[in-house]
Amino acid sequence: MEDGLITDAVLANSGAQRQGIWAIREDIEVLVKELKPMFSYDISLPIPYMDAYVATLEQNLKAQFPQTGKMIVFGHLGDGNLHIMITVRDDSSQSRRQVEQLVYSPLKEYGGSISAEHGIGLEKRDYLSISRSSEEIALMKRMKVALDPKLLLNRGKVVAVE
After folding, report:
1. Which residues contact 138 (CB under 8 A, 6 or more apart)?
2. How far apart are CA 86 and CA 96, in angstroms?
3. Which of 6, 86, 105, 136 has the most CB atoms lying inside 10 A of its own CB?
4. By its UniProt entry, which InterPro entries does this protein fall under (predicted)?
5. Per-position pLDDT tens, the chain of length 162
6. Which pairs with CB-CB distance under 8 Å and at least 24 residues apart come from 47-50?
7. What fold does the segment set 15-131 form as a domain?
8. What is the structure's pLDDT at 81?
């Protein structure tokens, strides 16, 4: 708070208060039900840029989906991890791609990553270049070949090696 990174906070003064705070965090399923259909994201970025990133995302979501766009952001902010849940009341593949662009595109500007703790997999593979340079991706491919020369493990999951 002294550094101006936190503008509002709650500190538990007892075990009961701590349990109450955790109960709010753990009751995320209530929000999930209200947002269905929804898209869920796990991103990371430097803490000083979180507020600007979230403000940009919210502004862009409202501009592109003015009537239906809603989002909830939570996570373990202390390590730069944000969980983002977004609904546009349409779970079509076109809407998914539009929302993915809104979520992932600003990350490059803020030095963020398209994944904090849940990995890249198939869903995020097309966006890897937002948070990894071409040199880093080339290194990943070389490591894949070095560790799996027959390309048998997780074929085409994160990096496709031809």
Report:
1. none
2. 10
3. 86
4. FAD-bd_oxidored_4_C (IPR004113), FAD-linked_Oxase-like_C (IPR016164), FAD-oxidored/transferase_4 (IPR051264), Vanillyl_alc_oxidase_C-sub2 (IPR016171)
5. 788 877 788 889 999 999 998 888 788 788 788 889 999 999 999 999 999 999 999 999 999 999 999 999 988 777 889 999 999 999 999 999 999 999 999 999 999 999 988 788 888 989 999 999 999 999 999 999 999 999 898 887 777 776
6. 47/5, 47/77, 47/78, 47/80, 48/5, 49/110, 49/111, 49/112, 50/77, 50/80, 50/82
7. Alpha-Beta Plaits (3.30.70)
8. 92
In this prediction, residue 63 carries a pLDDT of 97
Give the list of residues 6+ apart from residue 117 with CB closer than 8 angstroms, or none: 42, 44, 81
Q: How far apart are CA 143 and CA 162, in angstroms?
A: 14
Instruction: Give the chain's radius of gyration (CA, Å).
Output: 18
Q: In the chain, where are the structural domains located?
A: 15-131, 132-162
Backbone phi, then psi, for 85, in 5-degree steps?
A: -115, 125
* Residue 93 in tokens: 């593949």
Interior/surface letters 3-33, b for 16+ CB within 10 angstroms, e for the rest: eeeeeeeeeeeeeeeeeeeeeeeeeeeeeee
